[in-house]
């Protein structure tokens, strides 16, 4: 078994929209939890050295942004409150492709394959929710007059 997660997906949106979905708290609260029934709160200071806190019901994960290169790359540490585990590392790489934006998500540094597998069970539905969010037509202020 592997102790790292790699998810590659082409998302049906511009690179700017995908990057925003990863960096804007108002968008993160719409997808950044594997269980949509949990109350989700996000605080994010998206800059190198900035911190974030995500509350998924009783579960809290926090970390620091290690690299912020809009709109192509985001790297941050990941640590659950209430554990003695060392922080893991999440890297999100975005690139434009003909069908939208290619997202490569890597989550590394797990002590065991079981820990990686448990996190994979969280990332898979989150990435699906992200894709669904990005599939929804966004209003165009130039043509939509409300």
UniProtKB/TrEMBL annotation:
A family per Pfam: AHSA1
CDD domains: SRPBCC_CalC_Aha1-like
Activator of Hsp90 ATPase homologue 1/2-like C-terminal domain mapped to chain residues: 13-134
Similarity section: Belongs to the AHA1 family.
Protein name: SRPBCC domain-containing protein
